[in-house]
């Protein structure tokens, strides 16, 4: 509690402390991160000594040339891959220490994925694709339907929920993918080139949608992109060059 700009230390009633309030921990904290692959007996370094923090509610664009390690870093933060060394702490959990089954459960509960090529199930309608992550929860059928209807409404597809992916435009398919990513109310949304397969106008609409979810719903977003126009929507840009964070 503040009194005239100073902080009251409740452990010493009646005394005033000039100590600064404790800063909240970052949502994502990457420390000393290394990633390499071994191919034909050769060690191929991809990321070298990466240190990075992302606050809750932040919107970060990861940029850099092809092969710089952007998608690899995104996959490590999202728990799709494991580091060769270092730690990846998300919301207080060092996910590098989780087992494969523990990691799968953690991803389902905490991460919303948006991909360049949508990754929709062609045999499922827009409704079915968005509902898919909820099938792993204990929600009733009625509760799932309510959530899916709300999510599709948020992305402007209430009138397309029974359409299949091949009946939707690229932009509409990406909107379905975004609704699917948000349906479980994830801690973190990761997007890998979410506008890379879209024309400029449609890409702008998708970026406005993501910007709204960040600003209005407070969703933390980490986005990999080659597009400077897409990166402009982010609060800050982080550049990777040959596996190193560049200034």
Structure commentary:
Helices cover 30% and strands 28% of the residues. The chain has one domain (25-246): P-loop containing nucleotide triphosphate hydrolases (Rossmann fold, 3-Layer(aba) Sandwich). It has seven helices and 13 strands. The protein is globular and about 50 Å long. By secondary structure, it is α/β, with parallel strands linked by helices. The chain has helices spanning 70-77, 100-110, 126-131, 141-154, 170-182, 200-217, 228-231, and strands spanning 2-3, 6-8, 16-17, 28-39, 42-54, 59-63, 85-90, 93-94, 111-115, 188-192, 220-224, 236-241, 244-246.
Task: Describe the protein's topology.
Layout: E1 2-3, E2 6-8, E3 16-17, E4 28-39, E5 42-54, E6 59-63, H1 70-77, E7 85-90, E8 93-94, H2 100-110, E9 111-115, H3 126-131, H4 141-154, H5 170-182, E10 188-192, H6 200-217, E11 220-224, H7 228-231, E12 236-241, E13 244-246
Parallel strand pairs: 6-11, 6-12, 9-10, 10-11
Antiparallel strand pairs: 1-2, 2-3, 4-5, 4-7, 7-8, 12-13
Helix pairs in contact: 4-5, 5-6
């Amino acid at each position: 509690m503040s009194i005239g700009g100073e902080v009251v230390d409740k452990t010493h009633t009646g005394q005033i402390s000039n100590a600064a309030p404790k800063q909240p921990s970052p949502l994502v904290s990457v420390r000393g991160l290394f990633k390499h692959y071994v191919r034909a007996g050769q060690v191929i370094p991809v990321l070298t000594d990466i240190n990075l923090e992302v606050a809750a509610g932040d919107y970060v664009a990861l940029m850099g040339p092809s092969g710089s390690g952007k998608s690899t870093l995104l996959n490590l933060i999202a728990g799709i891959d494991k580091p060769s060394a270092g730690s990846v702490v998300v919301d207080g959990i060092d996910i590098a220490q989780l087992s494969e089954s523990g990691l799968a459960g953690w991803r389902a509960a905490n991460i919303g994925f948006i991909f360049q090529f949508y990754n929709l199930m062609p045999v499922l309608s827009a409704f079915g694709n968005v509902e898919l992550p909820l099938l792993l929860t204990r929600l009733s059928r009625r509760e799932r339907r309510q959530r899916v209807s709300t999510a599709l409404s948020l992305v402007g597809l209430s009138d397309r929920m029974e359409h299949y992916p091949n009946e939707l435009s690229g932009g509409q398919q990406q909107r379905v993918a975004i609704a699917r990513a948000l349906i479980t109310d994830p801690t973190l949304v990761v997007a890998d080139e979410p506008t890379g397969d879209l024309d400029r106008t449609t890409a702008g609409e998708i970026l406005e949608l993501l910007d709204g979810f960040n600003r209005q719903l407070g969703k933390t977003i980490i986005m990999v992109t080659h597009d400077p126009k897409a990166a402009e929507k982010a609060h800050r840009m982080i550049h990777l060059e040959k596996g190193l964070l560049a200034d």
